[in-house]
Design brief:
Layout (H helix, E strand, L loop, with lengths): L7 H5 L21 H5 L14 E8 L9 E4 L5 E3 L5 E5 L7 E6 L6 E5 L3 E8 L9 E2 L7 E2 L7 E5 H5 L16 E5 L5 E5 L10 E5 L2 E2 L20 E8 L3 H4 L6 E7 L7 E9 L3 E11 L4 E13 L27 E2 L3 E3 L14 E3 L3 E2 H5 L4 E16 L2 E17 L3 E18 L2 E11 L4 E2 H9 L13 H18 L5 H13 L8 H11 L15 E12 L5 E14 L14 E16 L4 E12 L5 E12 L5 E12 L3 H5 L1 E3 L4 E3 L6 E4 L22 E4 L5 E15 L2 E13 L1 E9 L8 H10 L9 E9 L3 E15 L2 E13 L16 E12 L2 E10 L2 E4 L4 E4 L2 E12 L4 E8 L18 E10 L1
Parallel strand pairs: 1-7, 13-16, 36-42
Antiparallel strand pairs: 1-4, 2-3, 2-5, 5-6, 8-9, 10-15, 11-12, 13-14, 15-16, 17-18, 17-51, 18-19, 19-24, 20-23, 21-22, 24-25, 25-26, 26-27, 26-28, 27-29, 29-30, 30-31, 31-32, 32-33, 33-34, 34-39, 35-36, 37-38, 37-41, 39-40, 40-43, 41-42, 43-44, 44-45, 45-46, 46-49, 47-48, 49-50, 50-51
Helix pairs in contact: 6-9, 7-8
């Protein structure tokens, strides 16, 4: 068998390797499994109870220092990490007998050392390992366990792997892992999903930092890592695939992304990262942590990012557009906004040749509407203080603020300017449990919505001083009709020529983007957050969350129990702009739940069984029970072959906007749906036809619809998998899942009364035949969320392989299959699955010199159908290549970095309506001084 070189560790840290393929530093001392400890070297020294100092060096088996290795006293929070020379120092009490040190580093076997007395000349030698037998995770079961024996599919990305991610947003780099889909609505707004349903807002995956939800309380979505923590403070990232409500509750329908930050007691010193590159990129981060005493430590983090953002520029016709791309009648383009339309009917003065034809105003592009503000930027500041009451009881207080400017996509595209959150956390934690309380408050800054902005510009009066002045939209359609008539009757032009002449004449009546008139209207409307008159966005909501957990040993160490509970309260505020808080009072909402999990090991520790369940209660919905049962069977002398099987149920609660939305934009209104439901008329009948009042065969009664009050969305998932080292230097992680979704949450537009009742047929027919529109107290066009009755079925496979060939060349690859079963779905039913059937990654990494390492990853995404609330269509097959090279100068504690994402600048549009994600190359310097 090929020898595993000591330099293998640096290659194993490359981000292109499947995250679970390389062991990571254990952040808490009691991480090592009994099997792993039995095989670690134990060093015993002569007893001497005086003194407390423990120090020495951590080296490779060839004598090279290992900076960043962690050294813990087992069973405590007392620990540290090595400096750039591999040295460490800590104090430990010998009053209660010998002390056991656990020494670990990513890519090496964890070593246990038992000390009978203080020792400051320890030389600890770690042996490289391509397996993961000592690696642990906490997110899969909410207790620390060996990642090889986790009951569900899970990936882990170490701090060193994060360091080598070359995408501008760390979440975008997770797309290199099997089974994880990412999409970017802009440079800093990236969403993550597992197992399908990859929308631009990740509503089925929860994103946590130290178990604090990073979602905006108002919208229940995480804005990428824009308001999260800087990469310099990331100890690891753990990604749980599939349903996790049994332990995490609401919205852990498809997975969990957990960021673990660095403990100031362990990771001391100053770290600075500075990067600059294409698109005027400037990325600076700073972290400083200091242990004031053995009991008191603090850390501060700060980051600033700035670059020229990607701009969406797809000007092809939307699938909903009546007219095709380039039509002289105009058309509804994907990335032009506010394209109002009118269907000419037999009214006085309308040319009969235009009867029944739909004409669109061209609207304005994204670049027009942001008016030169194409810079994306963010800053994050954070501070934390930790105090050890004793070696196994730690109190932490944390405060942080994250603010960003970028572009977000949902029903429309939104330019979010200085949107952010303030977050505070207080946590008391021991090895057996925790009590945690945190609060999050969001704010919108000067954000605005592009469709409303363009629409309101076109609906502005040509002459504001004249009450009788037409709007630009009215002037456009009037000019179009008049120019067409003139071209046909006077100019004797052909129909096609007349249409082109009419379009050119009408276009000339609109304010030119960038002109004084346009800029004046744009600025006024963008700053106005009244939905009837402006496009400004405003919300300011608070989330308060309190949770606790305790673990127990039942009878023997082979049986464990954890119990926990959580309560969260929302206080929603928007001043009537987004929510139904028109009276100015915040809207309260709450949910709470409790959970338990019992685990048992049997058959000489080869079989691990786990049973978990959680019950949740809500203000607006019925209670929900989320069970999970799992088994892991391990084979081999070191349990290196692990087979897992699980069944779980999970749920998603409707978002706060699904429940309490109230946004009147004039032509239609968006409402929440937690009352008694709605009665109304849909826009199509069972045959997919729109209502035509002039067709005597069509009956309005055939368009009647009933919309029930919202319920929780649910999923049932079966999963089997294997994780193991099939050879000492070949690692495999494979899984298969099958899921069934019920009460799938979607949206519907219809004609109805605001009180939920059905309008009279006379009112509806009058609005249609006279063209007066549905903008009366009797009838409005309403958009609400609803549960679909159809069962949605999906299944998929993931396979990841890592081959540690030698120190200069290591190979990685993974493949993902996701299948949506449409056999039971009606034509036109939107699932928002948005996931390629086939996807794969190929990577190579290694060390070609003592301090020079590299990594390259090629990602291929098959073309697939996407259905977004904003637009629908086909995403073309795309591919991207990311690369990183780092050269470390140990004496300067510095690393010179060169990296790039999509280095060949391949076409890379990840979501319908989103921008093309182009090439971004950077140069950087990373300094770590302890």
């Amino acid at each position: 068998m090929r020898k595993i070189y000591s330099a293998l560790v640096a290659a194993a840290l490359a981000p292109t390797i499947a995250a679970t393929a390389a062991p990571g530093a254990t952040p808490v001392p009691h991480h090592v499994s009994a099997k792993a400890k039995a095989k670690t070297k134990k060093l015993r020294l002569a007893p001497d109870p005086t003194g407390t100092h423990i120090g020495g060096a951590v080296l490779t088996n060839t004598g090279d220092p290992l900076p960043g290795a962690t050294v813990f006293i087992k069973g405590t929070y007392v620990g540290t990490s090595t400096n750039q020379d591999g040295h460490f120092d800590l104090n430990g009490s010998f009053a209660n007998g010998p002390v056991e040190l656990l020494v670990s580093y990513v890519g090496y076997e964890t070593q246990s050392i038992i000390l009978q007395k203080p020792e400051d000349q320890l030389n600890v030698s770690l042996v490289p390992s391509a397996t993961m037998l000592s690696e642990t995770v906490v997110s899969a079961s909410r207790v620390e366990e060996n990642i090889m024996r986790a009951p569900v599919t899970i990936d882990k990305v170490s701090a060193k792997q994060v360091e080598r991610i070359s995408t501008p947003e760390v979440l975008a780099g997770l797309g290199n892992l099997a089974g994880i889909d990412v999409n970017s609505a802009s440079m800093l707004f990236t969403s993550v999903s597992t197992r399908g349903f990859n929308t631009a807002k990740s509503e089925r995956v929860i994103q946590l930092v130290d178990y604090m939800d990073t979602a905006l309380p108002s919208l229940n979505l995480s804005p990428g890592n824009m308001v999260g923590i800087p990469e310099l403070d990331m100890e690891s990232i753990e990604i749980v695939h599939g349903p996790a409500s049994a332990l995490y509750g609401s919205n852990a329908l498809s997975g969990v992304v957990l960021f673990n930050s660095k403990d100031p007691f362990v990771y001391e010193g100053l770290s600075v990262r500075l990067r600059g590159g294409q698109r005027s990129l400037l990325d600076g981060q700073l972290r400083y942590a200091h242990k004031i005493t053995d009991k008191l430590a603090f850390k501060v983090n700060a980051s600033y990012f700035r670059a020229n953002d990607w701009i969406a520029n797809d000007f092809n016709a939307q699938t909903s557009s009546t007219n095709p791309t380039g039509s002289p009648l105009g058309y509804d383009a994907v990335n032009r906004y506010g394209e109002l339309d009118v269907t000419f009917a037999p009214y006085p003065g309308v040319n009969p040749e235009l009867y029944g034809k739909r004409v669109y105003i061209p609207g304005y592009t994204e670049r027009d509407l942001v008016a030169g503000d194409t810079t994306t930027r963010s800053y994050r500041v954070q501070g934390a203080v930790s105090y050890l009451f004793n070696s196994d009881l730690k109190l932490t207080f944390e405060a942080k603020r994250g603010v960003g400017t970028s572009t977000y996509q949902n029903l429309s595209r939104f330019r979010i300017k200085d949107l952010g959150t303030d977050q505070y956390r207080l946590e008391l934690k021991s090895s057996k449990g925790f009590i945690r309380a945190y609060t999050t408050e969001d704010f919108t800054g000067s954000s605005y919505e592009l469709t409303q902005l363009s629409t309101k510009v076109l609906q502005s009066k040509v002459n504001p001083a004249n009450a009788q002045s037409p709007t630009y939209a009215q002037q456009y359609f009037g000019t179009y009709n008049g120019a067409y008539t003139y071209a046909r009757q006077v100019g004797k032009q052909s129909v096609d020529m007349a249409l082109a002449s009419a379009q050119a004449a009408a276009n000339a009546t609109l304010p030119v983007a960038g002109s004084d008139v346009f800029n004046s209207l744009r600025n006024k409307i963008a700053q106005d957050n009244n939905p009837m008159t402006g496009a400004g966005q405003h919300f300011n909501s608070r989330l308060s969350d309190v949770s606790a957990q305790r673990s127990f040993v039942l009878g023997s160490p082979k049986t464990g129990l954890i119990v926990g509970a959580a309560y969260r309260q929302y206080m929603l505020g928007s001043g009537g702009v987004l929510f139904d808080d028109l009276d100015g009072k915040r809207i309260p909402n709450y949910e709470y739940g409790s959970y338990a999990q019992i685990t048992h090991s049997t058959l000489n520790d080869h079989l691990k069984l786990a049973l978990a369940g959680r019950v949740d209660f809500f203000k607006n919905f019925n209670p929900s029970l989320s069970p999970r049962v799992a088994a892991v069977y391990s084979l081999g002398g070191r349990n290196q072959h692990n087979f897992r099987a699980s069944y779980g149920q999970a749920f998603r609660s409707p978002s706060q906007t699904d429940q309490f939305l109230h946004s009147d934009v004039g032509s239609f209104i968006l409402l929440g749906n937690i009352g008694n439901g709605y009665q109304g008329y849909g826009f199509t009948d069972a045959k997919g036809r729109g209502y035509n009042p002039y067709d005597p065969t069509m009956k309005l009664a055939d368009f009647e619809i009933s919309i029930d009050k919202l319920r929780l969305e649910r999923v049932n998932t079966y999963e089997v998998g294997y994780k193991g080292a099939i050879l000492p230097n070949v690692y495999v992680d494979a899984s298969y899942f099958n899921s069934r979704y019920n009460d799938f949450i979607g949206g519907v537009a219809f004609i109805g009364n605001l009180n939920g009742s059905r309008p009279s047929e006379a009112v509806v027919k009058s609005a249609i035949t006279t063209g007066s529109g549905f903008n009366t107290p009797e009838a409005r066009i309403i958009f609400v969320s609803q549960n679909n009755s159809q069962v949605v079925r999906t299944q998929g496979v993931t396979f990841a392989l890592t081959y540690y060939l030698n120190k200069a060349l290591n190979l990685t690859g993974n493949y993902s299959l996701n299948v949506l079963d449409r056999s039971n779905l009606p034509i036109g039913f939107r699932t928002y699955f948005n996931t390629p059937k086939h996807k794969y990654n190929l990577g190579v990494n290694g060390i070609v010199a003592k301090n020079l390492n590299y990594t390259v990853n090629y990602r291929w995404i098959e073309g697939h159908q996407q259905e977004m609330p904003f637009a629908a269509g086909e995403i073309a097959t795309y591919r991207t290549t990311d690369a990183y090279v780092g050269y470390t100068i140990p004496k300067l504690a510095s690393t010179l970095q060169v990296g790039g994402s999509n280095i060949f600048n391949a076409n890379n549009i990840q979501i319908i309506g989103g921008p093309q994600i182009g090439r971004l190359i950077y140069l950087g310097l990373l300094v770590n001084v302890k």
